[in-house]
Amino acid sequence: MSAKVHSESTSSSEDSPWTSALLLGPLFPTVLALVTVVLGQFTLLADPVCSKTDSESSSNSGCQFLSAAVASAYLEIIVFSWVFMGTTVTMTLPGGKTYKILRPFSKLRTIFCCYAFVFVVSLGSFGYGTTFLIDLESRKNSGALLINFSLFLQIVYWLMVILGSVSLIMIKLGTKKVSKGSKYKAERTIKKEKNLEHGSEAWFKHWFEIESDGMDTMESDKLEKFFTCVDMDVPGDDLDNIVDQLDIEGTGEIGFSGVWSWYESEGKRKYGVVKNVEKNGGDEEDDGNNSKEDVM
Protein backbone atom coordinates (compact mmCIF):
# COMPACT_ATOMS: atom_id res chain seq x y z
CA MET A 1 0.00 0.00 0.00
CA SER A 2 1.31 3.42 -0.86
CA ALA A 3 2.12 6.04 1.76
CA LYS A 4 -0.41 8.34 0.15
CA VAL A 5 -3.27 6.02 1.01
CA HIS A 6 -2.02 5.76 4.58
CA SER A 7 -1.85 9.50 5.09
CA GLU A 8 -5.20 10.28 3.55
CA SER A 9 -6.96 7.51 5.44
CA THR A 10 -5.47 8.85 8.66
CA SER A 11 -6.55 12.36 7.72
CA SER A 12 -10.14 11.21 7.23
CA SER A 13 -10.08 9.63 10.67
CA GLU A 14 -8.63 12.74 12.28
CA ASP A 15 -11.30 14.93 10.67
CA SER A 16 -14.08 12.82 12.16
CA PRO A 17 -16.03 14.61 14.93
CA TRP A 18 -15.92 11.39 16.95
CA THR A 19 -12.13 11.65 17.25
CA SER A 20 -12.17 14.78 19.39
CA ALA A 21 -15.20 13.50 21.29
CA LEU A 22 -13.37 10.32 22.31
CA LEU A 23 -9.98 11.90 22.99
CA LEU A 24 -10.94 15.16 24.70
CA GLY A 25 -14.50 14.48 25.82
CA PRO A 26 -13.43 12.45 28.90
CA LEU A 27 -11.28 15.35 30.20
CA PHE A 28 -13.90 16.70 32.61
CA PRO A 29 -14.93 13.24 33.89
CA THR A 30 -11.24 12.60 34.55
CA VAL A 31 -11.02 15.81 36.58
CA LEU A 32 -14.01 14.62 38.61
CA ALA A 33 -12.26 11.26 38.99
CA LEU A 34 -9.17 12.97 40.43
CA VAL A 35 -11.34 14.88 42.90
CA THR A 36 -13.11 11.65 43.84
CA VAL A 37 -9.86 9.80 44.46
CA VAL A 38 -8.24 12.53 46.55
CA LEU A 39 -11.19 13.81 48.56
CA GLY A 40 -13.03 10.49 48.55
CA GLN A 41 -10.23 8.65 50.30
CA PHE A 42 -9.89 11.52 52.78
CA THR A 43 -13.63 11.33 53.49
CA LEU A 44 -13.48 7.58 54.03
CA LEU A 45 -10.69 8.03 56.56
CA ALA A 46 -12.33 11.01 58.29
CA ASP A 47 -15.82 9.54 58.58
CA PRO A 48 -16.27 7.87 61.98
CA VAL A 49 -18.16 4.92 60.48
CA CYS A 50 -16.17 4.34 57.29
CA SER A 51 -12.84 4.52 59.11
CA LYS A 52 -13.74 1.47 61.18
CA THR A 53 -12.78 -2.02 60.05
CA ASP A 54 -15.71 -3.86 61.59
CA SER A 55 -18.95 -5.08 60.04
CA GLU A 56 -20.67 -1.74 60.66
CA SER A 57 -18.35 -0.03 58.18
CA SER A 58 -18.66 -2.72 55.51
CA SER A 59 -22.46 -2.70 55.69
CA ASN A 60 -22.89 1.09 55.56
CA SER A 61 -24.37 2.13 52.20
CA GLY A 62 -22.55 5.46 52.14
CA CYS A 63 -19.17 3.83 52.71
CA GLN A 64 -19.89 1.24 50.05
CA PHE A 65 -20.89 3.89 47.51
CA LEU A 66 -17.86 6.08 48.09
CA SER A 67 -15.50 3.10 47.94
CA ALA A 68 -17.04 2.02 44.63
CA ALA A 69 -16.87 5.59 43.31
CA VAL A 70 -13.16 5.78 44.15
CA ALA A 71 -12.54 2.45 42.40
CA SER A 72 -14.36 3.54 39.23
CA ALA A 73 -12.47 6.85 39.37
CA TYR A 74 -9.17 4.97 39.31
CA LEU A 75 -10.35 3.11 36.19
CA GLU A 76 -11.20 6.40 34.47
CA ILE A 77 -7.80 7.89 35.29
CA ILE A 78 -5.97 4.78 34.05
CA VAL A 79 -7.80 4.72 30.70
CA PHE A 80 -7.46 8.47 30.13
CA SER A 81 -3.75 8.37 30.96
CA TRP A 82 -3.11 5.39 28.70
CA VAL A 83 -4.77 7.14 25.74
CA PHE A 84 -2.09 9.85 25.80
CA MET A 85 0.85 8.18 27.53
CA GLY A 86 0.48 4.51 26.67
CA THR A 87 3.63 2.68 25.65
CA THR A 88 4.63 -0.80 24.57
CA VAL A 89 5.53 -3.11 27.44
CA THR A 90 7.27 -6.37 26.54
CA MET A 91 8.37 -9.41 28.51
CA THR A 92 11.22 -11.68 27.42
CA LEU A 93 11.12 -15.28 28.60
CA PRO A 94 14.28 -17.29 29.38
CA GLY A 95 14.01 -18.99 25.99
CA GLY A 96 14.45 -15.64 24.26
CA LYS A 97 10.87 -15.28 23.09
CA THR A 98 9.40 -11.81 23.58
CA TYR A 99 5.74 -11.11 24.28
CA LYS A 100 3.90 -7.80 24.18
CA ILE A 101 2.05 -7.37 27.46
CA LEU A 102 0.73 -3.86 26.88
CA ARG A 103 0.72 -1.50 23.94
CA PRO A 104 -0.75 1.95 23.16
CA PHE A 105 -4.28 2.29 21.84
CA SER A 106 -4.22 2.16 18.04
CA LYS A 107 -7.95 2.24 17.24
CA LEU A 108 -10.73 4.59 18.24
CA ARG A 109 -12.99 1.59 18.62
CA THR A 110 -10.74 0.23 21.38
CA ILE A 111 -10.79 3.56 23.21
CA PHE A 112 -14.57 3.66 22.93
CA CYS A 113 -14.90 0.14 24.38
CA CYS A 114 -12.65 1.02 27.34
CA TYR A 115 -14.57 4.19 28.14
CA ALA A 116 -17.86 2.33 27.71
CA PHE A 117 -16.73 -0.23 30.29
CA VAL A 118 -15.69 2.53 32.72
CA PHE A 119 -19.04 4.27 32.20
CA VAL A 120 -21.00 1.10 32.96
CA VAL A 121 -18.99 0.56 36.15
CA SER A 122 -19.46 4.17 37.27
CA LEU A 123 -23.14 4.05 36.37
CA GLY A 124 -23.62 1.12 38.72
CA SER A 125 -21.65 2.85 41.48
CA PHE A 126 -23.48 6.16 41.27
CA GLY A 127 -26.82 4.47 40.79
CA TYR A 128 -26.23 2.71 44.09
CA GLY A 129 -25.15 6.03 45.59
CA THR A 130 -28.43 7.60 44.56
CA THR A 131 -30.36 4.97 46.52
CA PHE A 132 -28.15 5.74 49.52
CA LEU A 133 -28.99 9.44 49.44
CA ILE A 134 -32.74 8.92 49.14
CA ASP A 135 -32.78 6.35 51.95
CA LEU A 136 -33.31 8.24 55.21
CA GLU A 137 -32.34 5.27 57.35
CA SER A 138 -28.96 4.92 55.62
CA ARG A 139 -28.22 8.62 56.00
CA LYS A 140 -28.95 8.51 59.72
CA ASN A 141 -26.06 6.09 60.18
CA SER A 142 -23.60 8.23 58.19
CA GLY A 143 -21.63 11.33 59.05
CA ALA A 144 -22.32 14.79 57.63
CA LEU A 145 -19.04 14.88 55.68
CA LEU A 146 -19.84 11.61 53.92
CA ILE A 147 -23.38 12.70 53.05
CA ASN A 148 -22.35 16.14 51.76
CA PHE A 149 -19.46 14.84 49.66
CA SER A 150 -21.63 12.05 48.25
CA LEU A 151 -24.30 14.60 47.35
CA PHE A 152 -21.69 16.76 45.59
CA LEU A 153 -20.43 13.80 43.56
CA GLN A 154 -23.95 12.77 42.62
CA ILE A 155 -24.91 16.22 41.35
CA VAL A 156 -21.76 16.69 39.29
CA TYR A 157 -21.80 13.14 37.91
CA TRP A 158 -25.40 13.17 36.70
CA LEU A 159 -24.96 16.64 35.21
CA MET A 160 -21.99 15.31 33.24
CA VAL A 161 -24.01 12.30 32.10
CA ILE A 162 -26.81 14.55 30.84
CA LEU A 163 -24.48 17.04 29.13
CA GLY A 164 -22.39 14.25 27.64
CA SER A 165 -25.45 12.48 26.27
CA VAL A 166 -26.75 15.69 24.71
CA SER A 167 -23.35 16.39 23.16
CA LEU A 168 -23.13 12.91 21.63
CA ILE A 169 -26.65 13.22 20.22
CA MET A 170 -25.77 16.61 18.71
CA ILE A 171 -22.63 15.16 17.12
CA LYS A 172 -24.64 12.27 15.72
CA LEU A 173 -27.31 14.55 14.31
CA GLY A 174 -24.71 16.99 13.03
CA THR A 175 -23.09 14.32 10.89
CA LYS A 176 -26.45 13.42 9.35
CA LYS A 177 -28.09 16.80 8.81
CA VAL A 178 -26.62 17.87 5.51
CA SER A 179 -29.00 19.58 3.12
CA LYS A 180 -29.07 18.87 -0.59
CA GLY A 181 -27.46 22.23 -1.33
CA SER A 182 -24.72 21.55 1.20
CA LYS A 183 -24.16 18.18 -0.41
CA TYR A 184 -23.22 19.68 -3.77
CA LYS A 185 -21.17 22.36 -2.03
CA ALA A 186 -19.30 19.60 -0.21
CA GLU A 187 -18.64 17.86 -3.53
CA ARG A 188 -17.11 20.99 -5.04
CA THR A 189 -15.06 21.69 -1.92
CA ILE A 190 -13.70 18.15 -1.76
CA LYS A 191 -12.75 18.20 -5.43
CA LYS A 192 -10.94 21.48 -5.01
CA GLU A 193 -9.13 20.54 -1.80
CA LYS A 194 -8.09 17.08 -2.93
CA ASN A 195 -7.14 18.32 -6.42
CA LEU A 196 -8.57 15.17 -7.95
CA GLU A 197 -8.32 14.41 -11.64
CA HIS A 198 -11.24 14.90 -14.02
CA GLY A 199 -11.51 11.13 -14.42
CA SER A 200 -12.97 10.78 -10.91
CA GLU A 201 -16.16 12.72 -11.73
CA ALA A 202 -18.17 9.53 -12.31
CA TRP A 203 -16.93 8.12 -9.03
CA PHE A 204 -18.19 11.22 -7.24
CA LYS A 205 -21.60 10.66 -8.77
CA HIS A 206 -21.83 7.07 -7.54
CA TRP A 207 -20.18 7.90 -4.20
CA PHE A 208 -22.83 10.48 -3.29
CA GLU A 209 -25.61 8.23 -4.53
CA ILE A 210 -24.55 5.75 -1.85
CA GLU A 211 -23.40 8.27 0.78
CA SER A 212 -26.38 10.62 0.51
CA ASP A 213 -25.24 12.70 3.51
CA GLY A 214 -22.75 14.56 1.32
CA MET A 215 -19.72 13.38 3.30
CA ASP A 216 -16.39 12.41 1.74
CA THR A 217 -16.31 9.35 4.00
CA MET A 218 -18.54 6.29 4.04
CA GLU A 219 -18.89 3.15 6.10
CA SER A 220 -16.40 0.53 4.98
CA ASP A 221 -19.10 -2.11 4.49
CA LYS A 222 -20.53 0.01 1.65
CA LEU A 223 -17.34 -0.27 -0.40
CA GLU A 224 -18.50 -3.44 -2.16
CA LYS A 225 -21.66 -1.69 -3.32
CA PHE A 226 -19.61 1.26 -4.54
CA PHE A 227 -17.28 -0.99 -6.56
CA THR A 228 -20.34 -2.60 -8.12
CA CYS A 229 -21.66 0.83 -9.12
CA VAL A 230 -18.41 1.67 -10.92
CA ASP A 231 -18.34 -1.75 -12.62
CA MET A 232 -15.30 -3.01 -10.74
CA ASP A 233 -15.32 -6.72 -9.90
CA VAL A 234 -13.31 -7.17 -6.68
CA PRO A 235 -13.25 -10.63 -5.01
CA GLY A 236 -14.33 -10.86 -1.39
CA ASP A 237 -10.88 -11.63 0.00
CA ASP A 238 -9.35 -8.74 -1.90
CA LEU A 239 -12.13 -6.47 -0.67
CA ASP A 240 -11.27 -7.24 2.95
CA ASN A 241 -7.61 -6.43 2.30
CA ILE A 242 -8.54 -3.15 0.61
CA VAL A 243 -10.70 -2.14 3.58
CA ASP A 244 -7.81 -2.91 5.94
CA GLN A 245 -5.52 -0.71 3.83
CA LEU A 246 -7.91 2.21 3.69
CA ASP A 247 -9.19 2.01 7.28
CA ILE A 248 -5.89 1.74 9.13
CA GLU A 249 -7.37 3.38 12.25
CA GLY A 250 -10.19 0.85 12.48
CA THR A 251 -12.88 3.55 12.57
CA GLY A 252 -15.18 1.66 10.22
CA GLU A 253 -15.06 4.53 7.70
CA ILE A 254 -13.08 5.14 4.52
CA GLY A 255 -12.45 8.36 2.59
CA PHE A 256 -13.13 9.01 -1.07
CA SER A 257 -9.65 10.37 -1.71
CA GLY A 258 -8.13 7.24 -0.18
CA VAL A 259 -10.20 4.98 -2.43
CA TRP A 260 -9.31 7.02 -5.50
CA SER A 261 -5.60 6.97 -4.61
CA TRP A 262 -5.78 3.19 -4.16
CA TYR A 263 -7.41 2.87 -7.59
CA GLU A 264 -4.72 4.99 -9.23
CA SER A 265 -1.84 3.13 -7.55
CA GLU A 266 -3.12 -0.47 -7.41
CA GLY A 267 -6.72 -0.95 -8.52
CA LYS A 268 -6.20 0.13 -12.13
CA ARG A 269 -3.35 -2.33 -12.52
CA LYS A 270 -5.03 -5.29 -10.78
CA TYR A 271 -8.64 -4.95 -11.90
CA GLY A 272 -8.44 -3.01 -15.14
CA VAL A 273 -9.30 0.53 -16.19
CA VAL A 274 -12.92 1.33 -15.49
CA LYS A 275 -14.42 2.88 -18.62
CA ASN A 276 -16.97 5.11 -16.99
CA VAL A 277 -14.16 6.62 -14.95
CA GLU A 278 -11.62 7.16 -17.70
CA LYS A 279 -13.91 8.29 -20.52
CA ASN A 280 -15.00 11.94 -20.39
CA GLY A 281 -15.38 12.04 -16.63
CA GLY A 282 -18.12 9.43 -16.48
CA ASP A 283 -19.81 9.37 -19.94
CA GLU A 284 -20.59 5.88 -21.11
CA GLU A 285 -19.49 4.69 -24.54
CA ASP A 286 -22.04 4.22 -27.29
CA ASP A 287 -21.39 0.50 -27.60
CA GLY A 288 -22.91 -0.07 -24.14
CA ASN A 289 -19.91 -2.03 -22.89
CA ASN A 290 -19.17 0.16 -19.88
CA SER A 291 -17.87 -2.35 -17.37
CA LYS A 292 -14.09 -2.04 -17.82
CA GLU A 293 -11.37 -2.52 -20.40
CA ASP A 294 -8.16 -4.45 -20.04
CA VAL A 295 -5.01 -2.57 -19.19
CA MET A 296 -2.77 -2.48 -22.22
Keywords, separated by commas or semicolons:
296 residues, 5% strand, two-stranded antiparallel ribbon, two-stranded antiparallel sheet, disordered N terminus, single chain
Instruction: Say how many strands there are.
Output: 4
Summarize the amount of helix as a percent range. Answer: 55-70%
Low-confidence stretches: 1-15, 192-199, 278-296
How many domain regions?
2
Span between termini? 23 Å
Order of helices and strands: HHHHHEEHHHHHEHHEHH
Strand content: 5-15%
Query: How many alpha or pi helices?
Result: 14
Question: What sort of overall outline do the alpha carbons produce when their principal axes are compared?
Answer: elongated
Largest sheet entry: 2 strands, antiparallel
Strand order of the largest sheet: 1-2
Mean pLDDT: 75
**Given the helix and strand composition, which structural class is it?**
mainly alpha
Q: What's the gyration radius in Å? A: 27 Å
Topology:
Elements: H1 3-15, H2 17-24, H3 27-46, H4 55-59, H5 61-85, E1 89-92, E2 98-102, H6 108-134, H7 136-140, H8 144-176, H9 180-194, H10 201-210, E3 217-219, H11 223-229, H12 236-246, E4 253-255, H13 256-271, H14 275-278
Antiparallel strand pairs: 1-2, 3-4
Keywords: Membrane, Transmembrane, Transmembrane helix
Transmembrane segments: 21-45, 65-91, 112-134, 146-171
Region (Disordered): 276-296
